[in-house]
Amino acid sequence: MESKPSPSTLIDQLVVPGDVILDLSIMTSQTIKLGGGLRQDGDTISVMKAGTLRFTKPNKYWVESSNKRYIPNAGDNVLGVVVDTKPENFILDIKGPALAHLPVLSFEGGTRRNIPKFEVGTLLYVRVVSANTGMNPELSCMDANGKAGEYGILKEGYMFESSTGLARQLLSSPPHLVLEALGKKLSFEIAVGINGRFWVNASQSSTVILVGNAIQKSESLSMVQQKIYLDKLLKSIQ
Amino acid sequence: MVLKKTLQSICLLNVHPNTTTSIVIQVVNDDGALLPCAINAACAALVDAGIPLKHLAVAICCCMAESGHILLDPSKMEEQKVKAFIYLVFPNSIVSVLPQDVKEHGIITSVTHGAMAVDDYFSCLKLGRAAAAEMSDFLRNSIKLKAGNDLSRAG
Predict the structure, then answer these.
(1) Which of A18, A159, B17, B38 has the highest count of CB atoms within 10 angstroms of its CB?
(2) Which first-to-last residue range defines the signal peptide (chain A) (predicted)?
(3) Exposed, middle or buried by CB within 10 Å (0-12, 13-18, 19+), for A231?
């Protein structure tokens, strides 16, 4: 009876490219799932990107890192900007190495008769359906069940750029400190794409600017510094 | 050319086929050991950008002074006066769950200028490897500092 593999001793620690995290020769007939940032090098699993090694039971390993560039993965929700329209697809820029294709029929109730007309520069909230290396990623404006959900065009407001790490923090629960604090005093709408983009909309443009700048600034501040910054900011807008 | 080959050997280019990784290096100040400095800077930039790498490259410069002593990291003046100097690039020292292995003794690049005895070259190599281990730790700590800032605000 094979005993369960003990998780790597490097979990939740910083790893840099070259570090070896698992020795496969001592684990036989186990299935391990490797996420981003790891590769198999003969009989060992080694690290490709610097970041924190994460593990979830039963057998998933990945490296969590924050970069300015985004690598598309299936299942991600991203903000894309239309750069071109073709008869079969819209071409979107999702901040990855290749432009992504959004089929014209992948909208709820989409038929050849009611193809939406998006101009170049339109901002869309889309889901990445598939992202294989060497191919352009495929997108969709429907969720897995075929419903529109939150996907589609984002009108008005403004889009800001961030790193992928900040985007993940903004999407995590409990809500990010900045969003909670700003949400208590101001009312605004926000859409966060895991590709390092977020869109803010509010009734007044000054609110949009305030929220966008506050979020971008919070990335370089520690928790304590953020609290101080937000207190000062919210006092000054009264 | 040496710079390109060195960086090419540490990048994993087949993870993103059909793409170009473009590295721009701008010399702000040259006080000797320009090539090792450029390699260290490019490596740090690649790690920061999240480009997949096999391991990090740590570059140092060693020179043989007239007196027979070996100097590490010479300044521009020193570099011009010595009879020979070498640029060496090693892979970084890694943290591993395996008992320590062959990688410890790898070398990526060696560029020599001037003439020196074979024994001197080997002692430079030994010294250089020790220096590279120190620099490797420094690099790891710097990466930790930057990543640590991001982690401290995890939701």
Answers:
(1) A18
(2) none
(3) exposed
Beta carbons of B15 and A48 less than 8 Å apart: yes
CATH number for region A76-153: 2.40.50.140
Q: According to the model, what pLDDT value does residue B80 have?
A: 85
Residues in chain B, total: 155
How far, in Å, CA of B6 to CA of B109, rounded?
7
By the 8 A CB rule, do A186 and A202 touch? yes
A13-64: CATH topology is: OB fold (Dihydrolipoamide Acetyltransferase, E2P) (2.40.50)
- Degrees to nearest 5, angle at CA B130 with B129 and B134: 110
pLDDT for residue A171 is more than 50: yes
**For strand A33-34 and strand B57-64, is the pairing parallel, antiparallel, or unpaired?**
unpaired
Q: Does A173 touch chain B (CB under 8 A)?
A: yes
Pairing outcome for strands A197-201 and A158-161? antiparallel
Query: Do the chains contact at A16 and B56, CB–CB below 8 Å?
Result: yes
Which of the residues A27, A48, A171, A222 would you substitute to probe the B interface, choosing the one with the greatest number of B C-beta atoms within 10 Å? A48
Cα A14 to chain centroid distance, Å, stands at 21
For A68-116, how does the pLDDT look when each residue is reduced to its tens digit (9 = 90+)?
889 998 889 999 999 999 999 999 999 988 899 999 998 888 888 888 8
CB A123 within 8 A of CB A90: no
Interface confidence (ipTM) of the complex: 0.82
Nearest to A50 among B17, B47, B95 (CB): B47
Hey, are the CB atoms on B149 and A44 less than 8 Å from each other?
no
Instruction: Look at B52 and A15 and tell me if their CB atoms are within 8 Å.
Output: no
pTM: 0.85
What residues does each domain of chain A span? Answer: 13-64, 76-153, 158-237
State both tokens at B130: 């020790």
Contact A36, A67 (CB under 8 A): no
Question: pLDDT-based confidence at B43, cuts 50/70/90?
Answer: very high
Task: List CB contacts (< 8 A) between B51 and chain A.
Answer: 49
Nearest residue of A to residue B141 by CA position? A14
Residues 56-95 of B with CB under 8 A from A: 56, 91-92, 94-95
